[in-house]
């Protein structure tokens, strides 16, 4: 289950600055990443989308969304076409380009296999094709252990496609965040199990271009209020309990 970070940690991230005065905030989100960031009837939806809406509401600034594949969304922020990206995992490389709000959650990368798979360890995946994101925690761990060259990692366009390939037996495993795999498994009624869960978790935050202390301060204040009032926990329960509206809109896999 997703972890909502402690109130004290949010407090430590508060910065100084003046007020915020903008007509709206353009928020970048990805597609194909349920239950965090995806679309329902063509409209952005998910946990991170709701976090962005709640933050903007507390800033009394309307939220507008630009949705696309992840690489394009990141480029839009780099070149100033959007104001922020919600739900970006924090790492040292990204710190070179962006400022981050207080982290408001954690994600854990895991390895999923079909329930009827005979795999019991990573060694059973040697020589096989699996799907996963570039530079995921699991891939970096395998590089550190010197075994990444023994497994072919293919990048799917979306997490739905990755799970579909696994369900049809076209790949041996899929690397994706725990809650994404659980969500897609529920929606499609799949028989999937977790092979390994080595990830202690990556902190998730709102990313801004550097040099915006006023906006960063206000966002952190909004996140602190959401934490203390239980709104972050309520949003997590909504999206990670299997009760979110629209969960059955994802079409089922045609064959196992």
TrEMBL record:
For this protein, the record's Pfam families field holds: SBP_bac_3
| Residue stretches spanning the membrane | none
The record, for InterPro entries, names: SBP_3_CS, Solute-binding_3/MltF_N
Entry GO terms, CC: cell envelope
Q: Which Gene3D superfamilies does the protein's record reference?
A: Periplasmic binding protein-like II
The answer on whether this UniProt entry bears the keyword Flavoprotein reads no
Subcellular location(s) per record: Cell envelope
Q: Which PROSITE patterns match?
A: SBP_BACTERIAL_3
Q: Where in the sequence is the signal peptide annotated?
A: 1-21
User: What region holds the Solute-binding protein family 3/N-terminal domain?
Assistant: 24-243
Keywords attached to this entry: Signal
Q: Into which family does the record put it?
A: Belongs to the bacterial solute-binding protein 3 family.
Name of the featured protein: Extracellular solute-binding protein family 3
Naturally occurring in which organism (per UniProt): Desulfomicrobium baculatum (strain DSM 4028 / VKM B-1378 / X)
């Amino acid at each position: 289950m997703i972890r909502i970070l402690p109130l004290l940690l949010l407090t430590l991230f508060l910065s100084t600055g003046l007020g915020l005065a903008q007509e709206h905030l353009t928020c970048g989100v990805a597609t194909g990443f349920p239950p965090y960031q995806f679309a329902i009837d063509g409209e952005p939806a998910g946990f991170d989308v709701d976090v962005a809406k709640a933050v903007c509401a507390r800033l009394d600034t309307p939220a507008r969304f630009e949705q696309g594949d992840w690489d394009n969304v990141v480029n839009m922020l780099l070149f100033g076409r959007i104001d922020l990206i919600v739900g970006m995992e924090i790492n040292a490389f990204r710190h070179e380009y962006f400022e981050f709000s207080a982290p408001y959650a954690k994600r854990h990368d895991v390895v999923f296999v079909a329930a009827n798979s005979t795999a019991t360890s990573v060694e059973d995946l040697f020589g096989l094709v699996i799907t996963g994101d570039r530079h995921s925690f699991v891939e970096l761990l395998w590089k550190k252990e010197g075994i990444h060259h023994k497994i072919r990692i293919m990048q799917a366009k979306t997490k739905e496609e990755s799970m579909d390939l696994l369900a049809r037996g076209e790949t041996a495993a899929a690397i994706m965040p725990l809650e994404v795999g659980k969500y897609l498994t529920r929606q499609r009624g799949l028989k999937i199990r977790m092979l390994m869960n080595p990830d202690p978790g990556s902190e998730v935050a709102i990313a801004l271009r550097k040099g915006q202390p006023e906006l960063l301060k206000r966002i952190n204040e909004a996140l602190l209020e959401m934490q203390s009032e239980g709104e972050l926990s309520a949003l997590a329960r909504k999206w990670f309990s299997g009760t979110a509206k629209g969960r059955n809109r994802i079409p089922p896999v045609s064959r196992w």
